[in-house]
Amino acid sequence: MAVKKTVVRQEIQVVGFYIGEDEYAVNISKVREISAMIEIRKVPKSPPFVEGVINLRGGIVPVIDLRKRFDLPINENRQAAKILIVELAKNQVGMIVDNVSEVMRFYQDDIEKAPPMFSASIDSQYIQGVAKLNEKLIILLDVEKLFSFEEQKVLTNFKT
Q1: Which residues contact 133 (CB under 8 A, 6 or more apart)?
Q2: Residue of 31, 21, 34 lying closest to 141 (CA atoms)
Q3: Residue closest to 69 by CA, chosen among 28, 112, 127
C-alpha cells in the first residue's frame, strides 16, 4: 500500500497597495501600521529619496515616496495616499503609496520569480516575486532591498 505524502503549503500574508495602476505588496510582518496622509516636514540637506519626517506618537519617522524611489511621476493628488509604516533594520520608515488595497493571503508556491527585466520603471532587485491572485498580478517588494546599506544608515540617523 502506497503512503500518500501530505505537502504543507506555506501561507504568507501581505499588505497590498497601489502605485498608479500597479498593485504591490509587502510582507505583513514588516508593516507596523498604515497612516492617513499627515503633514510631512522637509528636512534641510536630506537626500533626495527622503521626503521628510513625520511625528508618529512622539517619535520621528523618516518618510520616502515610493514613486520617487521607482522614478515614477509624482502624484500631486494625494487625497487617497497613505503612509505605510514599515520596519527596516529595527527602525521605522514611512513609505508614501497612492492607496492601500487589502491584506491578502497566498501560498509561497504561488509566487514566481520576477523576470530580470521585469519592469523598465522598477529595479528588479527590489522585487521579491510576482504573485497571481484572482487573475491579478501583485508585485511583492522586499523592504530590506529597497535601500542600499548607505541609505539605511541615513534613515536610521533620523530616529529619535
Answers
A1: 104, 106, 110
A2: 31
A3: 127
Q: Is the pTM of this model over 0.90?
A: no
Q: What is the pLDDT of residues 29-50, one digit of tens each?
A: 999 999 999 999 998 988 888 8
For 11-156, CATH gives 2.40.50.180
Q: Which three cell numbers stand for residue 17?
A: 497597495
Provide CB contacts within 8 A for 125, sequence distance 6+. Answer: 145
- Express each pLDDT in 95-153 by its tens digit: 999 999 999 998 888 888 876 655 544 556 778 888 888 888 899 998 888 887 888 88
Q: What are the sequence ranges of the domains in the chain? A: 11-156
Cell of 8: 504543507
